[in-house]
Write a structure and sequence with these properties.
Strand content: 15-25%
Distance between the termini: 52 Å
CATH architecture of the largest domain: Alpha-Beta Barrel
CATH class of the largest domain: Alpha Beta
Oligomer: single chain
Radius of gyration: 23 Å
Helix content: 25-40%
Number of domains: 2
Bound molecules: pyridoxal-5'-phosphate
Order of helices and strands: HEHEHEHEHEHEEHEHEHEHEEHEEEEEEH
Number of helices: 12
Length: 402
C-alpha cells in the first residue's frame, strides 16, 4: 500500500494502527479460486482465527468465501457477519460436548477430531452428518509450534484409529460426510501437501457417505523480498488433477475444500507504530515504539520475521536497529534490522500484519488494543475503535469488602 496513504491514516486515526487492504485480500482469494478452477466443486473456508473482524468476514463473504471456525465464539461472529449456518464450518479441538451441542443448535457444519466426541455425537445425533479430522502424520509447518499434523500433535484422529471410526459410524448408523486435515501453517513445499493428501485420499476411500474432502490451510506467503511462498498455481494444478481422479474412483463429484487463513489476509495487513525514542547504548541503537507483544506477538512467540519500513523517512541512510516495544518484559520485534534512519516520532510499518496479528493481541500491561481500518475501493473505513480505559474495566467488579 502507498506509504503516503498509510501516513495519512495514522494522522487521521492515531497510532498504533492496523490497516487492511481489501484489494489484496480479494486478489489472494481469486488466486486460490483460479488455482483450483479445474475441480468441479470448490469451497474456500477462510480460517476466521487469522483475522476475525466482522467487516473482514463480510468482505470475504462478498468475495464468495465460506468460513472455518475453531470456537463457538468465532461461529457467532460469522453469523453476525451474515454467513448462513451452512456456510460455517466448525473445526474445534479439545472442546466440551456442551460447545458441540451449541454448534448443533446453530446448524453449522461440524468436524470432530477425536473418537470420544464422535461416539457422543453418534449416540446423540445419529441422523446428522458430521465430518472427521484426520491426523495424516506428516511434519509440515514453518516451525514446531505451528506443525499440527505430526503423530504426537493433539490434533486429529490418527490414521490407525480409522477402524474404530468406521465401527462407531456403523454402530450408530451415522453419516460421516467429510474427511479433513490441517497439517500446519507456513508449509512451503507442494510435496508436503501432496504426501498428506495421499494419506487423506486413502482414508476417504473407506467411507461410503462422503460429500467433501477438506485439505485445511497452511499456504505460506512471502515475508520479505525473495522469501518463497507456496506455489499455489502449481499446487492447484497437481492437486486438482489428482482430486478429479479420486472422484472418479469414488464414483461421485466430491467437494474440494481449503481453509486458508494466512494466505488470504497476511499481506493485506500493515501495522503502524510510532517511535517513542531512540536509545543508544554501546553498539546498539534501540528504537522503542508505542506497541509491543501485546499488539503483535508473532516475532516473540514464533520467532516470525516481519519486515519493518520507516515510512516517514524512506530515504534516510540505512542503519541497524533493535526495534523494541514499550512492554515491561522483553519484547523485541527485530534485532540489528537495517532500517532507514529512525528518529523520534517516525512511523514504522510492519508488513504481513493481517494474519494472527490483531487476533492474538492482548491487554498485557493494561495497554489498550489498537484501532483497525479497512481500505476498500480507495476509501478508508474504521472497522474497530481503539480501546479506552472503560474497555479495560468493563467487567471488573470493584469489591467493597476492601
Ligand atoms: C489455523 C487453521 C487454518 C488456517 O491456517 P493458515 O496457516 O492460516 O492457512 C485452517 N484450518 C484449521 C483447522 C486451522 O486451525
Amino acid at each position: 500500500m502507498d506509504q503516503q496513504v498509510l501516513l495519512s491514516l495514522v494522522s487521521k486515526y492515531g497510532s498504533p494502527l492496523y490497516v487492511y487492504d481489501a484489494e489484496k485480500i480479494i486478489s489472494q482469494f481469486d488466486r486460490i479460486k483460479n488455482a483450483f478452477s479445474e475441480t468441479k466443486r470448490l469451497r474456500i473456508n477462510f480460517a476466521t482465527k487469522a483475522l476475525s473482524n466482522i467487516s473482514i468476514l463480510k468482505l470475504l463473504k462478498k468475495a464468495g468465501a465460506n468460513i472455518d471456525c475453531v470456537s463457538i465464539e468465532e461461529v457467532q461472529l460469522g453469523l453476525l457477519a451474515g454467513f448462513a449456518p451452512k456456510q460455517i464450518s466448525y473445526t474445534p479441538s479439545g472442546v466440551s460436548f456442551e460447545e458441540i451441542e451449541r454448534a448443533v443448535d446453530l446448524g453449522v457444519k461440524i468436524t470432530l477430531d477425536n473418537l470420544i466426541a464422535l461416539e457422543y455425537f453418534g449416540a446423540k445425533h445419529p441422523g446428522l452428518p458430521v465430518s472427521i479430522r484426520i491426523n495424516p502424520n506428516v511434519m509440515g509447518g514453518g516451525n514446531k509450534k505451528i506443525s499440527v499434523g505430526h503423530h504426537k500433535a493433539k490434533f486429529g484422529i490418527p490414521v490407525y484409529q480409522i477402524d474404530e471410526v468406521l465401527e462407531i459410524e456403523k454402530k450408530y448408523k451415522m453419516k460421516i460426510n467429510g474427511v479433513h486435515m490441517h497439517t500446519g501453517s507456513d508449509i512451503l513445499k507442494v510435496e508436503t501437501f501432496l504426501e498428506a493428501a495421499e494419506v487423506l485420499f486413502s482414508v476417504a476411500k473407506r467411507f461410503e457417505h462422503l460429500d467433501f474432502i477438506d485439505f485445511g490451510g497452511g499456504f505460506k506467503v512471502s515475508y520479505k523480498e525473495g522469501d518463497p511462498a507456496t506455489d499455489i498455481e502449481k499446487f492447484g494444478k497437481i492437486i486438482s488433477k489428482r482430486f478429479n481422479e479420486i472422484c472418479k474412483e469414488y464414483g461421485k463429484d466430491l467437494e474440494i475444500v481449503f481453509e486458508p487463513g494466512k494466505f488470504l489476509v497476511s499481506e493485506s495487513g500493515h501495522f503502524l507504530v510510532k517511535v517513542n525514542l531512540i536509545k543508544e547504548i554501546k553498539d546498539i541503537s534501540f528504537a522503542a515504539v508505542d506497541s509491543g507483544f501485546n499488539h503483535l506477538i508473532r516475532p516473540m512467540y514464533y520467532g516470525a520475521y516481519h519486515h519493518i519500513v520507516n515510512i516517514s523517512n524512506p530515504k534516510g541512510p540505512e542503519k541497524p536497529y533493535h526495534v523494541v516495544g514499550y512492554i515491561c518484559e522483553t519484547d523485541t520485534f527485530a534485532e540489528n534490522r537495517m532500517i532507514n534512519e529512525v528518529r523520534k516520532d517516525d512511523i514504522l510499518c510492519f508488513r504481513n500484519a493481517g494474519a494472527y496479528a490483531f487476533t492474538m493481541a492482548s491487554n498485557y500491561n493494561s495497554r489498550l488494543r489498537p484501532a483497525e481500518v479497512l481500505v476498500y475501493k480507495g476509501k478508508d473505513y474504521l472497522i474497530r475503535e481503539r480501546e479506552n480505559i472503560e474497555d479495560l474495566t468493563r467487567n471488573q467488579i470493584i469489591t467493597d469488602i476492601l
